[in-house]
Predict the 3D structure of the following.
Amino acid sequence: MSKEIAEILISEEELKEICARLGKQISEDYKDKKLFLVSVLKGAVVFMADIMRNITCPCEIDFMSVSSYSGTKTTGVVKIKKDLDINPEGCDILLVEDILDSGVTLSYLKQMLLQRNARSIKVCTLLDKPENRQADIAADYVGKVVPDEFVVGYGLDYNEKYRNLPFVGILSPEVYGGKD
Ligand code: IMP
Ligand code: MG
């Protein structure tokens, strides 16, 4: 393992188990609904690809791109860089996220999508970092609760690097100059 990764937090095997567990639960909960999976680029793309193949009920998918981060620090300002292609009116949206940290991004997206007359909006996040929460938001489906460390891999990046790692690891503080 590279010395830039301090520790493997979630192995490939555990990630598979998480996707199987959440996919089963979502398939049961949404079997009579109009499931619309909305993933937030780019961090959630690997999780989205895995979770959708564990969902057995019919669904549509789409992607949004927003930005709120620079390095390891949130800017607190959410910008929409790519909006939905599909109109979410009347759909049961499930927002698929890589990590719920301050919650600023997701609470903004939830409010914005509610105004577009979706029938329901819930949140599925691979990782939940509750210690750092600033917005009043909780996820409905959580893969794993993680400590307040900067994590990378399985889609998550540090300045666009490490997304291709097949596991989730803690980034060595030396890489970004320590925690703020
Ligand atoms: P929030 O708005 O603070 O909840 O964070 C939203 C986004 O910040 C996430 O979807 C991630 O893309 C990014 N983020 C937050 N924490 C981490 C981390 O530990 N590693 C990599 N990206 C992170
Ligand atoms: Mg993200």
